Amino acid sequence: MAGRIRQSDVEEVKARTDIADIIGEHVSLKSAGVGSMKGLCPFHDERSPSFHVTPQRGFYHCFGCGESGDVYTFLQRMDHVSFTEAVERLAGRIGFELHYEDGGPAAEHGNRARLLAANQAAAEFFVERLGAPDAEPGRRFLGERGFDAEAARRFGVGFAPKSWDALTKHLRGRGFSTEELAAAGLVSQGDRGVYDRFRGRLVWPIRDVTGQTVGFGARRLLEDDNGPKYLNTPETAIYHKAQVLYGLDLAKRDIARSHRVVVVEGYTDVMACHLAGVTTAIATCGTSFGVDHIKVLRRVLGDDSGVGEVVFTFDGDEAGQKAAMRAFGEERRFAAQTFVAVAPDGLDPCDLRLARGDGAVRSLVESKTPMFEFVIRHTLSRFDLETVEGRVNALRAAAPIVADIRDPALRPGYTRELARMLGMELAEVSRAVRGAESARERAGSDRGERGRDRARPTPLADGGPGSSASPEPETPRAYSIRDLPNDPATRLERDAVQAMLQYPEAVGVDLLRQGVDCRFGNATLAVVRDGIASALAGVASEGGSTAGAVSLDRVVAEVPQPFAPIVQQLAVLPVPQRNEVELAAYVRGVVGALVDRELLRQKQELLGRLQRSDKSDATTYAAIQRGLVALENERRRLRGD
């Protein structure tokens, strides 16, 4: 085993990696000012973006949940890899050769990396075998659905030969162990030993949002195959079907750009949509659309403004109707508007393209129906609206759906539409909707009260059971920019510290040193200032002379732990909207204003000393006068600078 990666290599890989590119593969980022970007946090569910990234400093911070770190931290948290694996993955991405402290060969990238490598090798094997003579059933299946060799290549479709262990032998020859193949879900264990999981099937690679193959979906082709129609990779350390969306790696950029995603039901539907020009299509992998899928999609959509669209396409049969109702159950988790698209004759996108061409697929998506309208119609279809009893029961079932509409501006319109569908008086339907709203609010209030009751601590008599003579010491609270007062003096200190943290090179070493010597009125910001001063001193002691060497990691390491969050927040807090030309002037100006304030304070102190001094003491008097002149000259120089 190799030793630790050299620290110089760790820093070099980080310096060469654009953190915005890495995070942008998971989160749709938008500009938040010069040198700052923001998006929906990938670590918690939110409707408004509080996740900020500063590419120049290589840092991110979420003001919602407090998660923060550099590009290595992000990969560790997002992809569940070790620090070493994160460094090695990024080094491989940029083609950088790592060195290890003991001079040994590069270590394996860890279990996750080995599983990914095994899946990638399997994907290449399947693609190659699609051209073999025994893969004719697979090629025929694709051809019958309108997919040629180029389409198969574009989506990485391959063929698993009808063999007991062809893949197993191939991958063992590539250096993978049986244990690794089993952990990757590529082989199974039976009475006759280890055998290929996928045999005699057409195979689609399932990739994560970054494009790495994490599993496979395989379609039955042969009559003597007694397995399920579709067989997927089982749950593994890298494949979790509730969190993976087929085609997202291909669709993510267009989804982020258009703020639209089209959710279809199968692999061939995704292929058909993309080939027809609907390049935002994705599908679930052997499971229904759920909460984890929504979290992934919301991050890619940038789902915070409510202007986006989520279009669900479902088969026209009963199973498709049920799938639509399940999707409606999760609809409120989107800020985007949700729609349903069902072809009039019930064809799925793949069959629709085959029967009527690419234009019909595009028209299907464009002729979408709002999710609420679809669900209301589906609900009413269960009742006999020709009878009074049927209409009353239908109203009782549909009124809560209208009451659940998030946008209050839409409710009156849907109330009128429901009255029209039922053939009932608008006033009667409006009363039913208002009643459903009240019932929902009461239910929410009751749940809240019960939650508060459960959260309320039970008082204990002194010395009684459960009491303690020596209570647990309180955990020091974390300091946040939210705690800072909004007076002008504190705002200046905050803006100056922010500039020194984010743009030390633009501030310059000399002005930076003056800035950290200034007195602060806010005690919290004074601690951050001291952290910057200590980091600057550390750089100087190591022979460094550039302000850019004052890294955020150094400052965080210098301050007490409870102050680390506010340092991280200040490191990503966007500066006022300015262009690149004005940025240097702004950061030097705000730090200069802080220094000018300090010089003014010193001037007032000297003037006080001058008034109190004995004019007969010429030496002291002259020294104070020289000090005043020097201060005034420094202030003029600072302002001129």
Number of strands: 17
* % residues in beta strands: 5-15%
Rg over C-alpha atoms, rounded to the nearest angstrom: 32 Å
Shape: flat
Structural class call reads alpha+beta
The number of helical elements comes to 27
Question: Order of strands across the widest beta sheet?
Answer: 12-14-13-15-16-17
Main sheet overview: 6 strands, mixed
Residue-averaged pLDDT, rounded?
A: 84
Oligomer: single chain
Portion of residues within helices: 40-55%
Sequence stretches where pLDDT stays below 50 over 5 or more residues: 104-110, 450-474
Ends: how far apart?
55 Å
Task: Give an overview of the whole structure.
The chain is 52% helix and 10% strand. The chain has 27 helices and 17 strands. The strands form four sheets. A six-stranded mixed sheet has the order 12-14-13-15-16-17, sandwiched between helices. Helix 14 packs across helix 15, helix 16 packs parallel to helix 18 and helix 17 crosses helix 19. 40% of the residues are buried.
List the keywords:
641 residues, alpha+beta, six-stranded mixed β-sheet, five-stranded antiparallel β-sheet, 27 helices, 17 strands
Secondary structure topology:
Elements: H1 7-16, H2 19-24, E1 30-31, E2 37-39, E3 51-54, E4 59-62, E5 68-69, H3 71-79, H4 83-94, H5 111-129, H6 136-144, H7 149-155, E6 158-160, H8 166-173, H9 178-183, E7 187-190, E8 193-196, E9 201-207, E10 213-220, E11 230-232, E12 245-246, H10 248-258, E13 260-264, H11 267-275, E14 281-284, H12 291-301, E15 309-313, H13 318-329, E16 337-341, H14 349-356, H15 358-366, E17 369-370, H16 371-380, H17 388-403, H18 411-422, H19 426-455, H20 488-502, H21 504-507, H22 509-516, H23 523-541, H24 552-558, H25 564-572, H26 580-612, H27 618-640
Parallel strand pairs: 13-14, 13-15, 15-16
Antiparallel strand pairs: 1-2, 2-3, 3-4, 4-5, 6-9, 7-8, 9-10, 10-11, 12-14, 16-17
Helix pairs in contact: 1-4, 3-4, 11-14, 13-16, 14-15, 16-17, 16-18, 17-18, 17-19, 18-19, 20-23, 20-25, 20-26, 22-26, 23-24, 24-25, 26-27
